[in-house]
């Protein structure tokens, strides 16, 4: 069986600066993985490189359900099944969330009636119904923006869902809600990758694997004990252990 | 050569106040020349016609097909000649300037300004076929919109529609103004004046869809009494030239003015918006948002002046102009200005000029929306913000359709970027 996401020796640079330096990672279908890593280690860059943002020079391989991602434009990658929740989702004044979702779903070939059904069901589940007729991300709080990103995933039902800084800026209750939403997304047809700075969220969802990213690569992978180790000694302690 | 004797012929038999106004207008017209770019008010546009190459219409030409989006038309002004359909909502008095000037010279003097500071305003005073007068009396609330269909149809003419709207104290009404013309080469210089008494509320939606070969030179003047408020929706889509010279006097304490407007220029169109808001009373507020798009070789200009006078304490005034430049050959200029003579004010102005934002396109792409559709969604959203706020939502559908038609035409012809 194919992996949901398979990344092999990925390098990415902007101009002369190399940010991703040979990153490899596997996320099987049905699993939730987490990436943790210090500021500036390249986590958001990984997201944008996978999404196909045009500023990077990229080498290596990235496959979604066995199909090559690199080389495809952003919209094609999304329709192949890669949807991301960004660290900083942009506000798009004037474009109503509901219209935005209908356009996106239509472009992905989801039946109109099915889209409406999902909008109602997930709107309820994520308490997003009242934001449907507002502009995309406009005037939403940090937590509401994260919820909106997850809500969009629930409508588009990706094969690979990546959530950058999923719990930054959230209050304690919101962290639990977001974690529960991610857990609810788990299924045999989706592989989920979350990026976080805090082990707190890991209390509310079961991660199958945790990866630590430093200086543009995955330096260590393991189970929940890895988060506990980081919590205790920080990245510095991990660095010394790996030496 | 424009036949000036028409003014003399028209004023014969007219009530004195009107005849005097014509005479003053004619004198001012004789003394004026076509504006040049040396004149500050015309700095950004190069008029490519001369008034003396045009003629004055003698009678109204053949009417255009019924407009879409509106149900009942209360009055038509065709080539500057007024016809009142009798289909006005209850509580509204409508008549010609001649009727008003005959009945109530004082009121006429109050709601029809002596303004002939350029050749078109002077020409309007001198040669207007008829003026249309609309009055809503004290404490009267008119629920249905008063629709006024302004059309210019006769080739080679310049026509001068003139509409004066008076809302007496505490009156409330909504007005829809349609500005349309045939595909013939012609010019039109309509003047619309709104005078609001204390506590009056006016909702006005103006939709300009001049024909391709029309030189449209519109003027609007608003005078607001104490606690009066006006909500304006402005749509500018047509014309070889579509100009609007708007001046708003917030004279009364507590008066307010809100404008949401949009324009979309394509081909060789020039859309020129000039606005002056004078805050004179205390506790007044204004908020202007004008959004424009240009593509192909089109050009748009926004010149906005917020003027806060010394005694206008506790003023709040905001002015925003946002422009999408969709093709390399298109051009948008935005010149917002503040002139603040009072220090007890909250003022803000902003303007942006540029293409669709790549960050927005990227976000849409990340949800699987392809470039063409993403552009369409973003342009629609850009305009929806103002279309949703047009006071007359009945015209929103046709306006949205026309904006989309223009955009899709540009996209299909590969003119974007
Ligand atoms: N477009 C760019 N041009 C130049 N440098 C960049 C660019 N994008 C990212 N970088 C640099 O690459 C490094 C990684 O940035 P990135 O945003 O991926 O880090 P991160 O791991 O997401 O950090 P954080 O935890 O703070 O969100 C940083 O040093 C950043 O300054
Ligand atoms: Mg980041």
Spell out the key features of this protein.
heterodimer; A: 243 residues; alpha/beta; Rossmann fold; six-stranded mixed beta sheet; four-stranded antiparallel beta sheet; 7 helices; B: 417 residues; eleven-stranded mixed beta sheet; ten-stranded mixed beta sheet; 21 strands; 39% strand; globular; binds adenosine-5'-triphosphate; binds magnesium ion
Describe the structure in your own words.
Chain A is α/β, with parallel strands linked by helices and 243 residues long. Chain A has a single domain (3-242), classed as P-loop containing nucleotide triphosphate hydrolases (Rossmann fold, 3-Layer(aba) Sandwich). Helices cover 37% and strands 28% of the residues of chain A. Chain A contains 7 helices and 12 strands. In chain A, the strands form 3 sheets. In chain A, strands 6-9-10-3-11-12 form a 6-stranded mixed β-sheet, sandwiched between helices. In chain A, helix 3 crosses helix 4 (112-125) and helix 5 packs parallel to helix 6. The longest helix of chain A has 19 residues, at 224-242. Chain B is α/β, with parallel strands linked by helices. Chain B has one domain (72-111, 131-412). In chain B, helix 2 runs antiparallel to helix 5 (119-127) and helix 7 (371-387) runs antiparallel to helix 8. Chain B contains 8 helices and 21 strands. In chain B, strands 3, 4, 6, 7, 9, 10, 12, 14, 16, 18 and 20 form an 11-stranded mixed β-sheet that branches. In chain B, 52% of the residues are buried. Chain B is globular. Bound molecules: adenosine-5'-triphosphate and magnesium ion. Adenosine-5'-triphosphate (ATP) is lined by residues 14, 17, 19, 37, 39-45, 55, 87 of chain A.
